[in-house]
Amino acid sequence: MALHGELKILSGSANPSLAKAICDHLGCLLTPCLVETFSDGEIRVEIGDNVRGDDVFVVQPTCAPVNYNLMELCLVLDALKRASAKRVTAVIPYYGYARQDRKVLPRAPISAKLVADFLTVAGVHRLLTIDLHAGQIQGFFNIPVDNLYAAPVLLQHIKSLINDPSELVIVSPDAGGTERARAYAKRLCASLAIIDKRRLCPNQAEAMNVIGDVEDKVAVVLDDMIDTAGTMVQAAKVLMEKGAKSVVACATHGVLSGPAVQRLQESAFSQILVTDTIPLKNEALACSKIHSLSVASLLAKAVHNIHTESSVSVLFV
């Protein structure tokens, strides 16, 4: 039984198709929300329906343009707070600024914490996200944070790539992603490999060596996101040089900024798998190698469980 009023789902302008798909799974309609930009660049927001006493979920990944989408989300949250919504959950499939989760230089900000403060002050009561870049970001909030995993969606497609698990190897593109790759390898009964990577400067990396056996195997390079694709493309090159039969890229968030799409199109990858936490741009949609898998069903189950006060942990697989 719902304890927080009627379920309402709103969408910002960042990924309305995902919000619509979530509503389709839940059998409800999107609550209208007007978002416009004034001539001077300021954002105008107006909720188009009564939300007083309701349980409201706002779907808005903070992907590019990151600052615009983040500000838009904060304004929607503030509007809902002032409209007396009983509870507001921000559904942020992709959490922008997540890579700036600690001080790496003496006079640098912890941007992920600042974003958490923005959202809290704006009026959010709960956060729902997928595959945070750093799990400790959950601790930046003093509200409940549900960090789902896209594994159920991605694993299903990876299984279709091979007939025999012995033909498959899950590859972590760096040491930091080993735990994620090991979890996938265990679920798939596949072997594990790690790429020794030396980062030269921001957004540039050089893959140096492969730890593990990839010869005559389908190598799936697994990461939480693909940004400029420099790491992924170099990983594919090294794996093919080490004798891999084919190489597939797999990531939850297809950020695909800068030259990423061109790099991936010209790379050794046979397929690039991402989810729709971030909508693909036209350039990426035109790339035959890139395939987008939907997380709408996963998010819909989480929204239903949160709304009905059921367990969300059953989805943490």
UniProtKB/TrEMBL annotation:
Pfam families: Pribosyl_synth, Pribosyltran_N. Mg(2+) binds at H133, D174. D-ribose 5-phosphate binds at R199, D223, D227, T228, A229, G230, T231. Pathway: Metabolic intermediate biosynthesis; 5-phospho-alpha-D-ribose 1-diphosphate biosynthesis; 5-phospho-alpha-D-ribose 1-diphosphate from D-ribose 5-phosphate (route I): step 1/1. It catalyses: D-ribose 5-phosphate + ATP = 5-phospho-alpha-D-ribose 1-diphosphate + AMP + H(+). Its main location: cytoplasm. It is found in: Cytoplasm. The active site is at K197. Keywords: ATP-binding, Cytoplasm, Kinase, Magnesium, Metal-binding, Nucleotide biosynthesis, Nucleotide-binding, Transferase. InterPro entries: PRib_PP_synth_CS, Pribosyltran_N, PRTase-like, PRTase_dom, Rib-P_diPkinase, Rib-P_diPkinase_bac. Binds 2 Mg(2+) ions per subunit. Residues 7-123 form the Ribose-phosphate pyrophosphokinase N-terminal domain. One of its GO terms (cellular component) is cytoplasm. Its EC number is 2.7.6.1. GO terms for molecular function: ATP binding; kinase activity; magnesium ion binding; ribose phosphate diphosphokinase activity. ATP binds at D40, G41, E42, R99, Q100. Its cofactor is Mg(2+). It is an enzyme of class 2 (transferase). GO terms for biological process: 5-phosphoribose 1-diphosphate biosynthetic process; purine nucleotide biosynthetic process; ribonucleoside monophosphate biosynthetic process. Belongs to the ribose-phosphate pyrophosphokinase family. Class I subfamily. Homohexamer. Involved in the biosynthesis of the central metabolite phospho-alpha-D-ribosyl-1-pyrophosphate (PRPP) via the transfer of pyrophosphoryl group from ATP to 1-hydroxyl of ribose-5-phosphate (Rib-5-P). This is Ribose-phosphate pyrophosphokinase.
